[in-house]
Specification:
By secondary structure, the protein is an alpha/beta fold. The chain folds into 2 domains: 102 residues, Response regulator (Rossmann fold); 126 residues, OB fold (Dihydrolipoamide Acetyltransferase, E2P). Strand 9 and strand 10 form a beta hairpin. Helix 2 runs parallel beside helix 3 and helix 5 runs parallel beside helix 7. The longest helix is centred in the middle third of the chain and has 36 residues. The protein starts with a strand and ends with a helix. 33% of the residues are buried.
Length: 260
């Protein structure tokens, strides 16, 4: 399957230029185009894209506004394409992979596509390694020697602490140095990274399906594979979450472990 591309630019000629340059690489496919910030946000929340070519100055919200609203962890690999070179530092602060200035030259664009492929491959390899290691360690422990996993988490909230039953957590969302616990209608912020929680919770019950999310496998109702490297998970609540290929492998392994 080809890598799915979203082009976001309010200038028709700029979008046409990117389509023309992308046509030279068979691994990429332009899935959608957006002309303003509002449409970009809606598209990113509705559908999975592997890479986003994002203009900075657009009606309805700048490129930086889009990243802020969608969340850095939920963004696809992002390449800024702009007529202004003075935003470069700010672009890399929000973890943009590359920064192209208009008019984009073919050789420079080709180099950017190479970086995109390397980034996606490295993300998939790293997540596969982390996920499978956690699951295999749980399987290797066997039924007689099992690590104790927390049944409740303490979430500080100002002057009081909230206790959360781990089994009631539907999914966990990365938020920089914090993690957001989604428990029914409640969203609770815990000062632990998604990586720390992935190592803390029982991998037979909680699986990191994407670099930005962990799911309670008992809440998973459907899985939709989409694109070469990612898909979606549908939870019992109706929430749709991105799932990487590594997440799919880990989810499959954890499900087999739970039913063994």
């Amino acid at each position: 399957m080809k890598l799915q591309v979203l082009i976001a630019d309010d200038e028709p000629l700029a979008r046409q230029r990117l389509r023309f340059l992308l046509a030279d690489d068979e691994e990429f496919e332009v899935a959608d185009e957006c002309r303003n910030g509002k449409d970009v946000i809606a598209a990113l929340k509705e559908k999975h894209y592997d890479v986003l070519f994002l203009d900075i100055q657009m009606p309805g919200g700048s490129g930086f506004d889009i990243i802020k609203q969608v969340g850095r962890a939920q963004m696809p690999v992002t390449v800024f394409v702009t007529a202004h070179n003075h935003y470069a530092v700010q672009a890399f602060e929000v973890h943009a992979l590359d920064y192209l200035t208009k008019p984009v030259e073919p050789e420079r664009f080709k180099a950017a596509l190479g970086r995109v492929k390397e980034q996606l491959d490295s993300q998939a390899a790293l997540q596969t390694q982390e996920q499978l290691r956690s699951v295999l360690e749980a399987l290797r422990d066997g039924p007689h020697v099992r690590k104790e996993y927390p049944k409740r988490l303490v979430v500080p909230n100002g002057a009081k602490d909230s206790f959360v039953n781990v089994g009631e957590i539907e999914w966990i969302e990365a938020a920089d140095y914090y993690s957001c616990l989604h428990v029914g209608s409640k969203n609770l912020m815990l000062r632990e990274t998604i990586k720390q929680l992935a190592e803390t919770l029982d991998p037979r019950k909680f699986v990191r399906i994407h670099r930005s999310s962990i799911v309670n496998i008992e809440q998973v109702r459907e899985i939709l594979r989409e694109g070469r490297s990612e898909g979606w998970v549908l939870l019992a609540s109706g929430q749709r979450l991105k799932m990487s290929k590594a997440g799919w492998d880990a989810l499959l392994a954890a499900t087999r472990s739970a039913s063994a």
